[in-house]
Write a structure and sequence with these properties.
- It is a single chain.
- The chain has 3 helices and no strands.
- By secondary structure, the protein is mainly α.
- It has a domain at about 20-80.
- The protein starts with 19 loop residues before the first helix and ends in a 5-residue tail after the last helix.
Length: about 80
């Protein structure tokens, strides 16, 4: 049986406390999980394995270690490293 998508029931009205940027981060993470993890999580659980194949995808999407625009600007000004 496939896992159900998260319905987003907000009993304590938490969404009203989030900024637009915070909602964007939440929605992006939720979309990644629904598209990439949910389809394989049962198999991973039964096999007792961590889905390492998703780590690089998550990292390259910028979601694993998001940075603020100020941090990116500082890095660009102070770093001569080729990424």
């Amino acid at each position: 049986m496939p896992a159900m998508k998260f319905r987003g029931v907000d009993f304590i009205d938490f969404d009203t406390l989030l900024s637009d940027d915070e909602r964007l981060v939440r929605d992006t993470a939720r979309k990644f999980i629904e598209e990439n993890l949910v389809p394989i999580i049962e198999e991973c659980n039964r096999a007792g394995r961590f889905p390492r194949e998703l780590v690089n995808q998550w990292r390259t999407s910028g979601s694993l270690a998001p940075r603020s625009p100020d941090m990116v600007a500082r890095e660009c000004q102070t770093s001569n490293t080729d990424w």
